[in-house]
Design goal:
This protein is an alpha/beta fold and about 200 residues long. The chain is built from eight helices and eight strands; from the N terminus they run αβαββαββαβαβααβα. The chain has helices spanning about 10, 25-35, 65-75, 90-100, 110-120, 135-140, 150-165, 180-200, and strands spanning about 15-20, 45, 60, 75-85, 85-90, 105-110, 125-130, 170-175. The structure holds guanosine-5'-monophosphate.
Length: about 200
């Protein structure tokens, strides 16, 4: 164990945004990057190929499976998960540095990763992004209409289990609009930073 990992009060400044597949976490993150550029967002590593327009080092660090596996072996991830056939992970170093400097940090990750952060840093603030309704989530998950009935049923079953995870989270933000969800999330991060600062003055 490194001696300069963030301590509990610093880890309080970590916010994790997670939630079911298809709820719009990526859109909320993109909006925050554009309209709240002062919010520090972790850049994940992934083995998935870049989509058109994605920039290496800004959207993700795009790495090979071999590179990713050697980072796992070296303990370089705060959390990592296999999702839809690819590996995703949060590099530990930049998050630790941000928190040690007393500054807030935001991760946007899927549920398995959020649970690992909960175990590694119990003081972190976990925010669940919820769909406005079950029907809306179904619409988003089945929207493209290109999958067969069995695939859709599997996806909906997974979504039901993912919605149950809400109870494990500290806060819920409902994605009625991405603008509103982003502003609620930034507000939660701000009030957290303020209360941590006040606590440190006592
Ligand atoms: P996409 O491939 O669409 O960018 O992301 C797929 C999923 O991976 C999303 O649910 C996103 O939240 C999640 N994800 C992105 N980065 C990370 C990460 O570092 N760790 C984990 N556990 N999930 C991630």
């Amino acid at each position: 164990m490194s001696i300069d990992r963030p301590h509990a009060a610093q880890a309080q400044r970590l916010t994790v945004l997670s939630g079911p597949s298809g709820v719009g976490k990526g859109s909320v993150k993109a909006l925050i990057q554009e309209y709240y550029p002062w919010v520090w967002l972790s850049v994940s590593c992934t083995t998935r190929k870049p989509r058109p327009g994605e920039v290496d080092g800004a959207d993700y660090h795009f790495v090979s499976t071999e590179q990713f596996e050697s980072m796992i072996a070296a303990g370089e991830f705060l959390e990592w998960a296999s999702y839809a056939g690819n590996l995703y992970g949060t590099p530990r170093g930049p998050v630790d540095a941000q928190l040690r400097a007393g500054l807030p940090a935001l991760l946007e990750i899927e549920l398995q990763g959020a649970r690992q952060v909960r175990r590694a840093m119990p003081e972190a603030q976990l925010v669940f992004l919820a769909p406005p309704s079950w029907d809306e989530l179904v619409r988003r998950l089945t929207g493209r209409g290109t999958e067969d009935a069995a695939t859709i049923e599997r996806r909906l079953e997974a979504a039901r289990a993912e919605l149950d995870a809400e109870a494990e989270f500290d806060h819920t933000v409902t994605n009625v609009s991405i603008e509103q969800a982003a502003s609620e999330l930034v507000e939660l991060m701000g009030s957290l930073a303020a209360s941590a600062m006040l606590a440190s003055r006592k």
